[in-house]
Design brief:
Elements: H1 10-42, H2 45-53, H3 55-72, H4 74-82, H5 85-120, H6 125-139, H7 142-157, H8 163-185, H9 189-215, H10 223-226, H11 230-262, H12 266-302, H13 306-333, H14 335-339, H15 348-363, H16 366-381, H17 385-409, H18 411-415, H19 417-447
Length: 449
């Protein structure tokens, strides 16, 4: 069922729209969580460290790829808001073909970069082979991930956030069965976990494609809409590049930080990995509200409802701050117990590293809520350059921690790298949004809103 984001109570509409996105994010996150738990329990600590070690490289390559598709569908939502169905279908169709084409190119490039990048971040000798095997299988699924992300973004752009959730449920079910089969029964190790993830994503992508192309009542994408047009492709790429660069820049910071973490050995890497997975769970409510806000803002911007945008962003900002407080409490109280799921037997060094990291994140979680609200708002308006500026702030924060403070303070400094990055990203985002808000207030007055 489609959510009407153009009429009615804004906060209620955004929350209703965001709830399935949160569910989708939780399920998508479970691809990695299930891999980590099964690998940690069936294969061992070194295997868990190997999977965790590639997270920053995955963000660098796969995150940058998915960032592009996030920009491709902004025009789809804005066209829907303005009621221009012909333009909406053309931008949607073009984004599908563009995502697939770029995905294939990235697969080729990624396979050349993977092993040099693993060496660049000082991956320990005992896990480098497993890390390489795991990540190289995952790269085969980049075109699948990009098209899946694009189809889901198209659905959300026209107000349907529920169908992507249903398709991801099917994908997670496939992932769990194949993980147990490939890793637990066939003993394929980290390679089995990677293939399970790739096949499950393919399942979700096929279902999502069938829904968007055949059964979505709002969209009417024809074969002619799927043909790439240079002008449209360039306009979509221009919006997607800053978002992609944001992922790339922050991932470079994460890789440098991972280099610092790797210096503490496999147990600390495993603890850092497990705690990071717990943090990702508590990120989901704030991230979901952010994506919901982005779609809301895009549609209402297309419809010229500027006052509705301004008033709603204030309410979402306050709600996100409240959610961050609840998530902080969850991190401290429940987080260590979740970390224990990754181990077959208690390891004091792993638990110590995980608890220190979770405490540092919980103390500063309001900073990430600010990041999600204003980054997604500006993205929905089409000002995606703000993502790149925020990414540069995050890079500087992680660089300072990894290169300056970690040698002086040790692992405690690494635990505060995330908060430092969020703070330096928040400052430019808030400044840019306030400058745009003045413009929209003036436009709202001119329209008599």
């Amino acid at each position: 069922m489609k959510t009407d984001l153009l009429n009615g109570k804004p906060l209620k509409s955004i929350i209703s729209f965001a709830l399935p996105i949160m569910g989708s994010s939780m399920l998508q996150y479970n691809y990695n969580l299930v891999d980590n738990i099964i690998v940690g329990r069936f294969v061992g600590t070194d295997a868990l460290a190997a999977v965790g070690n590639v997270a920053s490289i995955n963000s660098f390559i796969i995150g940058a790829s998915l960032g592009l598709t996030s920009g491709f569908t902004i025009f789809v939502a804005q066209s829907y808001g303005s009621g221009d169905k012909k333009r909406m279908n053309k931008y949607a169709g073009n984004s599908i073909s563009l995502a697939l084409l770029i995905g294939v190119i990235i697969v080729i490039v990624a396979h050349f970069l993977s092993t040099p990048l693993l060496r660049l971040i000082d991956t320990p000798d005992e896990i480098i082979e497993m890390s390489s095997q795991y990540v190289n299988v995952l790269y085969y699924s980049v075109p699948i991930q990009m098209t899946l992300n694009n189809f889901n973004a198209i659905s959300r752009a026209v107000g349907d956030s529920k169908k992507p959730l249903y398709f991801l449920i099917a994908g997670v079910f496939v992932n769990l069965i194949l993980d147990l089969l490939f890793v637990g029964y066939f003993k394929w190790g980290v390679v089995g976990a990677a293939w399970a993830t790739a096949i499950s994503q393919l399942t979700a992508a096929i279902l999502s494609a069938f829904s968007v192309l055949k059964h979505n009542k709002v969209l009417d994408i024809k074969a002619s809409d799927l043909r790439l047009e240079g002008r449209i492709s360039w306009s979509q790429i221009k919006l997607g590049i800053p978002i992609s660069l944001q992922f790339t820049i922050t991932s470079i910071g994460s890789m440098i930080l991972q280099t610092a973490v790797n210096g503490f050995g496999a147990n600390v890497i495993a603890g850092f990995t497990a705690a990071g997975r717990v943090e990702q769970i508590t990120n989901i409510p704030m991230s979901g509200l952010g994506v919901g806000t982005m779609t809301f803002v895009s549609q209402n911007y297309g419809a010229g409802k500027y006052r509705r945008i301004i008033d709603s962003v204030k309410k979402i900002f306050l709600l996100d701050l409240l959610v961050s407080v609840v998530c902080s409490i969850i991190l401290i109280s429940i987080g260590p117990s979740v970390v224990g799921l990754f181990m077959t037997e208690y390891n004091e060094e792993i638990m110590f590293a995980a608890k220190r990291y979770l405490l540092a994140i919980a103390q500063c979680y309001s900073l990430v809520s600010i990041l999600f609200v204003f980054r997604n708002t500006l993205q929905g308006l089409g000002f995606t350059y703000a993502n790149m500026i925020a990414g540069a702030g995050e890079l500087f924060g992680r660089l300072a921690i990894a290169l300056v403070f970690t040698p002086l303070i040790g692992f405690d400094a690494i635990c505060y790298a995330g908060p430092a990055a969020w703070l330096l990203a928040d400052i430019p985002l808030v400044i840019i949004y306030l400058s745009k808000q003045k413009k929209f207030k003036k436009l709202a007055l001119e329209k008599g809103e």
